[in-house]
Design goal:
The structure is a single chain. By secondary structure, the chain is of the alpha/beta class. It folds into 2 domains: 102 residues, 2-Layer Sandwich (Nucleotidyltransferase, domain 5), CATH 3.30.420.40; 75 residues, 2-Layer Sandwich (Nucleotidyltransferase, domain 5), CATH 3.30.420. 29% of the residues lie in helices and 32% in strands. The protein contains 6 helices and 12 strands. The strands form 3 sheets. It has a 5-stranded mixed sheet with strand order 3-2-1-4-5, sandwiched between helices. β6 and β7 form a beta hairpin. α1 runs parallel beside α2 and α3 crosses α6.
Length: 225
């Protein structure tokens, strides 16, 4: 199977093509912003090398609100143009899949405001759904996982969660984004109907406007605001 994968949800802009396990072309640049400016050029280079593809995998979150929407919109548009299925990929699942080996794994993304997006895995199997957790709650989850062995923490939240453990007690992999190989593997393994819809684990930071454009501000104590 020949697949194209797209990831703009976290700290990288990645486009890659694989035929089964063999990479045809991988383009990835580490960045926190500006994915929309680089995505088109990277996709052009990869598609030129890849030729015909069978399916498209795109990360759908959790992650940057703007970043994941950029990749998802691009992937869906490309899928429509090529008449190919578009597979939604969890960033937490993809981070966990970026680490080889068995045992307990916590995929953790820095969600700011003293939180991480996290999901636990044991021997490759997810243990519950992804959640937005406070740092103490995520550290408590690591302690629970440690009963099954040395815990691997992968993702941008890894260093945030390391406080309180001795050096070497946790296996830390602070990856800014999933590997292209992991994305391709999940794309091949997914069912053809895997939903490509954005995944948000908490409400967006932006506030919903309380008045329409041009509408005067409400009065307070008899005076305009």
């Amino acid at each position: 199977m020949r697949v194209l994968v797209i990831d703009t949800a976290l700290g990288a802009c990645t486009v890659a093509a694989f035929e089964d396990d063999r990479p045809l072309l991988v383009r990835s640049e580490t960045m926190d912003r500006g994915h929309q400016e680089r995505l088109g050029g990277l996709a052009r280079d990869v598609m030129t090398e890849a030729g015909a593809i069978d399916r498209i995998g795109v990360t759908v979150g959790p992650g940057s609100f703007t970043g994941l929407r950029v990749g998802l919109a691009f992937g869906e548009g490309l899928g429509m143009a090529l008449d190919r299925p578009v597979i939604g990929l969890s960033t937490l699942d993809a981070l966990a899949a970026s680490i080889r080996g068995d045992g307990p794994v916590l995929a953790a993304i820095d969600a700011r405001r003293g939180q991480v997006y996290a999901r636990a895995f044991l021997d490759g199997a997810a243990q519950g759904e992804g959640r937005a957790l406070t740092i103490p709650d995520a550290q408590a989850l690591i302690r629970d996982l440690s009963q099954s062995g040395r815990v691997t923490v992968v993702g941008s939240g890894a260093t945030l969660l390391a406080e309180g453990w001795e050096p070497g007690e946790l296996d830390l992999h602070p990856l800014p984004a999933p590997t292209a190989e992991a994305l391709a593997r999940l794309t091949r393994a997914a069912g053809a109907q895997a939903a490509a819809r954005p995944v948000y684990l908490r409400a967006p930071d932006a506030a919903v406007p309380t008045r329409k454009p041009g509408q005067p501000r409400p009065l307070r104590d008899g005076a305009p605001r």
